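Box 3.1 — From sequence to structure: Ciliogenesis and planar polarity effector 2
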Amino acid sequence: MPSVVPGSVIVPNWHRCAESKEFFSKILHKRKRRKFGLLEAPVLPPHMNVDIVRYKIFISGKSGVGKTALAARLAGHDIPTMHYETTGIETTVVFWPVRLRESGRVLFFRFQLWDCGENALRRFDHMLPSCKEQVDAILFLFSFTDHASFEDLSNQMARITEPTDRIVKLVVGTKFDLFIHTDVTESEVNRFQEVWGVPVFCMGGDVAGGLGEVAPLLNSLAENLWHQDCTAAGSVPPPTQTEPGDATTEIMV
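Predicted structure (token representation):
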């Protein structure tokens, strides 16, 4: 399914507006992100009148590209200092408020991120079907320090999804800040976007930017998922297919 034009469905950079502070305060504690368990949610006062919409997100990629670290990053958790292979399926809950552009309505998106180790997927046949069951979006990961993981993207996408799947697809390049060791060039990323029509988000390891570091990716997830649901309900026309060269690399430094 073609991705929507950024900012056409939700208000971009709303997290920087003064009016958003009351909403974002519900997912923050002492300027850090709150941790939410599977059965927990932000405590919202009645006057906010905000709906929570829930989506399942599967994080796919080769071992070592940073799937677990990305889940932690998006949730505001501490990023593991050492790599370890995820032995089964791990889930992480992320809440993210957005304001819809047309109606001005505020929604809280609840993303349940599913992360499964590559070896577990290979050993146990039920793992991938479990991750794909009722999935709403898939994040396909590659590492800028591992060119083989980038070359595997097309095979990975073809192997996990079907052309008829109504699933939001985004690509995330990890370890972008390790530019000295970069094995994937900007031209290669641009070419991939042109061929596949899927936006690529570049994620580094610097967490100093706070919400600004994760906002582009979380906003894109929210925007595409909401548009997908509205399209399925017949309330909006389907997005226009992105023309070659129109896709934009989202650089998150």
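Summary of the box: The helical segments are 21-24, 67-75, 118-123, 127-132, 147-151, 153-160, 186-196, 211-232.
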